[in-house]
Design goal:
19% of the residues lie in helices and 8% in strands. It is an alpha+beta fold. It is built from six helices and six strands; from the N terminus they run ββαββααααββα. It has three domains: 126 residues, no CATH class; 82 residues, no CATH class; 63 residues, no CATH class. The protein starts with 34 loop residues before the first strand and ends in a 21-residue tail after the last helix. The protein has a two-stranded antiparallel sheet with strand order 1-2. The longest helix is centred in the middle third of the chain and has 18 residues.
Length: 279
């Protein structure tokens, strides 16, 4: 036998074989497909590739993309999907009378440097058998969770006066239980909805909902916010108590704003009268 099989684990047919008596697809879901085997070295064989193998990574129909086997060594990544930059194959050497099996090993979705081996520590790509089979289920679970969360937080898109403070609290890492999902489900639906079946989740990034991807901010008056970085002084946030002109964050400007009085140098109420609210 050959020491290396076709991609998918099947041995293939020699030129001139009788395809009717030696059916590679026998005892498989594709046993009824038509195919012809060339009788010489100059005529191409004609194979009917099933629609299962025409699907890409997010179609979840081609068993080869999950590291499995099949009688058709055919891989296809549609141009409308997220690009696979390199396909890593592995050969499992046969034992005794069995022939070796070639299968898909890795499908890195991020760029890989020229000459880098897919199994090196420099390429953070897991074997397809560990993540491709559960990919669609994971996307669906994230989507369902995001729909539930955004339905709950839908009130925060209102244009009431307290909205700036709520918005800053929502997009801050200081309140892990009060934060949106990252990556943005809305943006993921807009950009990748065509390949995820309109899922409300990102197709390849693990989402977080504890605000760890946001910065930290402090506020002394409810509408002036300053970033906080451990060990890094934020001198731009300091303001003199009576610094009215050009500085709406001073103490005197804050008092005027809370009283709905014009802040000198700005002409308008800054901000509008702040209403108390509960987080």
């Amino acid at each position: 036998m050959n020491d290396q099989s076709l991609l998918g684990g099947f041995d293939g047919l020699p030129v001139g074989s009788n395809a009717q008596s030696i059916n590679m697809a026998a005892n498989t879901p594709w046993a009824g497909l038509d195919y012809t085997v060339s009788q010489d070295m100059y005529t191409p064989s004609t194979w009917q590739i099933p629609s299962d193998f025409m699907g890409g990574l997010f179609a979840d129909t081609n068993p080869l993309l999950s590291g499995g086997g099949g009688p058709f060594g055919f891989l296809r990544i549609p141009s409308t999907e997220i690009g696979v930059h390199r396909i890593g194959l592995e050969i499992t050497k046969g034992v005794n009378d069995t022939f070796s099996v070639m299968s898909v090993y890795k499908l890195p979705l991020s760029t890989v440097g020229a000459g880098a081996e897919l199994d090196s520590a420099l390429v953070p790509s897991e074997p397809v058998s560990t993540w491709v089979p559960g990919l669609l289920a994971a996307i669906a679970a994230d989507s369902a969770a995001n729909v539930q969360r955004d339905r709950y937080y839908n009130g925060f898109v209102s244009a009431e006066a307290a909205c700036p403070l709520r918005r800053f609290a929502f997009y801050s890492s200081g309140r892990p239980a009060f934060a949106p999902s990252l990556p943005s489900p809305q943006r993921a639906l807009h950009v990748f909805g065509n390949i995820t079946g309109r899922a409300y989740a990102h197709p390849t990034m693990t989402q977080t909902t504890d605000g760890r991807g946001f910065g930290k901010y402090t506020t002394v008056n409810g509408f002036c916010f300053c970033p906080t970085v451990d060990g890094v002084p934020q001198y731009q946030c300091l303001s003199q108590i009576g610094a009215d002109q050009g500085n709406p964050c001073s103490l005197s400007a804050t008092v005027l704003a809370l009283a709905a009085q014009p802040v000198p140098g700005f002409g308008q109420y800054l901000p509008a009268q702040v209403k108390p609210f509960k987080m």
